[in-house]
């Protein structure tokens, strides 16, 4: 018989791999029993909404950004002046090109919160006398986390196009004023020569040519838009060396030498730089953790994350404690232990803070070392490492964006494998599982096939004092296992990117107590093996070594 008790605790898990058949009864302490998971899905949760509005969501995973590339610099009207040469040739330089805006995925950036809602490329400098052209402006680079998806917005949420902006500036003007305004927006004149210029044949020809070119460009742009009818879409799941250009900077204007001809020896006009491209993009961040935890609010996901990693995820006995996905790293040592090596029960955050305050006040512990961090180990002691994401609780109808719906589902989509976390002490954990799976499927067909494990948490809350109670608990586990085997084994495997039919096995069910750190070794071992499998599948054998943090024995 094997108890999974930590020393000094009278609580025992009656369920472990080795002990499933031989249950150990133990005194059950029900002081911290959790409320049953009944949640009204129809009304948005005021508390979570309120928390969000208080700016507590530092982690930003969705953003709409208005982008405008830099305007080109204006061409210059100038004439070369030299002693004894009163009538020098035209010498105005061209304007520099406006800076483009590019997007690059970089490692180390973890949230979209550093990105502004409006981004402007640098304007190109104007040309100058003595044939000095303006320099082309450098690109503005938007750095996003790896795992960001960028989509162009074409519906009513998009910003103005250049044409619309121009129309707006011309609104309410008379026809004549419109003509003048348009000219002003396109031409630069030699001082006091505007009126003279406009009357000359050379200017009129140049203006006509410009209008023709503009029209041709518009037609070309419309044709290009029809050809690649799809709006811009970037899936940045790897760090990018080069930025992807999303808005091209405007061309610089021509200086007056451009208009020099046999008939016009002294052109007194130049063109202005063109506007930079405008685009409205939506950024969506999909968190990249190897394992995603999926469960109802209050199921104990954060507690589990804390038990497995050194993460300080918030834990509290009410729903929607977690608003920001937390990622922790599970590090497994050669001796099979993992995480911090901490053995104390995972307390609710409030209790924990209170206890720490008390300990500090009584002088029992100094500030340093009071967080229970592990004694650092030699790196070669580590055999496997993977990341695990605790997510906001999933609700029925999350796929319709109820609760924290989509933001939750987005963040788990890219995990290599998923693990369901259910409250095993609840009345019908199998129903919870069915709902969780249905939500994953409703959001993205095939997604539930990434689930490999069912973590039946809070197993310590089941009464297991008498023989009957033990038998009951065993029956409950058997029922859950039977449900998982019969109902949760995927039946079709057509969606790409997910496991193939041969690889589909029934999900494993592991009863645990995250709070009292019972039976977590098995969870870690299974998760480690799923991660390894998925990594191998994704990157092929040759890259395995590069990916594994340590070239050591991995779980089999
Ligand atoms: N007895 C017992 N209580 C647990 C266990 N795991 C979690 N709890 C308690 O359940 C409550 C909720 O735990 P959390 O980890 O905050 O739950 P969560 O799934 O992250 O919840 P949300 O963030 O709201 O989605 C806390 O009071 C925990 O102490 C367990 O194994 N046994
Ligand atoms: Mg939580």
UniProtKB/TrEMBL annotation:
It comes from the Eukaryota. GO terms for molecular function: GTP binding; GTPase activity. Residues 116-140, 155-176, 343-376 are annotated as: Disordered. Residues 289-532 form the OBG-type G domain. CDD domains: Obg. One of its GO terms (biological process) is ribosome biogenesis. PROSITE patterns: G_OBG, OBG. The keyword GTP-binding applies. Residues 344-358 have a biased composition (Basic and acidic residues). Residues 57-288 form the Obg domain. Residues 128-139 have a biased composition (Polar residues). Keywords: GTP-binding, Nucleotide-binding. It holds the Pfam family MMR_HSR1. One of its GO terms (cellular component) is mitochondrion. The keyword Nucleotide-binding applies. This is Obg family GTPase CgtA.
């Amino acid at each position: 018989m094997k108890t999974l008790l930590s020393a000094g605790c009278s609580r025992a898990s009656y369920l472990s791999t080795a002990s499933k058949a031989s249950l150990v009864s133990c005194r059950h302490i029900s002081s911290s029993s959790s409320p049953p998971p009944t949640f009204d899905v129809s009304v948005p949760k005021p508390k979570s909404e309120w928390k969000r509005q208080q700016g507590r969501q530092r982690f930003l995973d969705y953003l709409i950004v208005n982008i405008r590339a830099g305007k080109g610099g204006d061409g210059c009207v100038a004439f070369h002046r030299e002693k004894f040469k009163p009538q020098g040739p035209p010498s105005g330089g061209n304007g520099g090109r406006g800076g483009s805006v590019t997007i690059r995925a970089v490692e180390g950036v973890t949230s979209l919160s550093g990105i502004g809602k409006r981004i402007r490329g640098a304007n190109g400098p104007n040309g100058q006398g003595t044939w000095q052209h303006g320099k082309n402006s450098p690109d503005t680079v938007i750095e996003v986390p790896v795992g960001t998806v960028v989509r162009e917005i074409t519906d009513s949420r998009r910003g103005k196009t250049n044409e619309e902006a121009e129309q707006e500036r011309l609104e309410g003007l008379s026809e004549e004023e419109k003509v003048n305004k348009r000219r002003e927006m396109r031409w630069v004149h030699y001082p006091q020569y505007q009126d003279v210029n406009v009357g000359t044949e050379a200017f009129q020809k140049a203006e006509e040519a410009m209008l023709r070119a503009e029209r041709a460009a518009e037609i070309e742009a419309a044709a290009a838009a029809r050809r690649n009818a799809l709006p811009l879409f970037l899936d940045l799941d790897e760090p990018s060396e080069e930025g992807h250009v999303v808005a091209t900077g405007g061309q610089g204007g021509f200086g007056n030498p451009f208009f020099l001809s046999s008939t016009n020896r002294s052109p007194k006009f130049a063109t202005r730089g063109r506007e930079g491209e405008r685009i409205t993009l939506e950024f969506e961040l999909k968190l990249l953790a190897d394992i995603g935890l999926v469960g109802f609010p209050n199921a104990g996901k954060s507690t589990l994350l804390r038990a497995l990693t050194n993460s300080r995820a918030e834990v509290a006995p009410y729903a929607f404690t977690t608003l920001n996905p937390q990622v922790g790293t599970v590090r497994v040592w050669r001796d099979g232990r993992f995480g911090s090596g901490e053995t104390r029960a995972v307390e609710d955050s409030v209790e924990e803070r209170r206890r720490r305050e008390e300990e500090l006040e009584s002088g029992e512990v100094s500030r340093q070392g009071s967080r229970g961090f592990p004694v650092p180990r030699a790196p070669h002691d580590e055999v496997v490492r993977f990341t695990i994401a605790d997510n906001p609780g999933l609700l029925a109808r999350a796929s319709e964006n109820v609760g924290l719906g989509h933001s939750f589902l987005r963040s788990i989509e890219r995990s290599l494998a998923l693990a369901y976390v259910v409250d095993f002490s609840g009345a019908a954990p199998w129903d919870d599982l069915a709902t969780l799976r249905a939500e994953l499927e409703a959001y993205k067909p095939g997604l539930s096939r990434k689930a490999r494990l069912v973590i039946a948490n809070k197993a310590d809350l089941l009464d297991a004092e008498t023989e009957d109670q033990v038998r009951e608990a065993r029956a409950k586990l058997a029922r859950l296992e039977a449900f998982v085997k019969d109902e949760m084994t995927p039946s079709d495997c057509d969606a790409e990117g997910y496991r193939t039919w041969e690889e589909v096995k029934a999900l494993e069910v592991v009863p645990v107590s995250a709070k009292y750190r019972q039976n977590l070794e098995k969870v870690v071992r299974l998760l480690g093996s799923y991660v390894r499998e998925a990594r191998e599948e994704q990157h092929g054998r040759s890259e395995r070594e590069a990916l594994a943090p340590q070239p050591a024995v991995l779980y089999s």
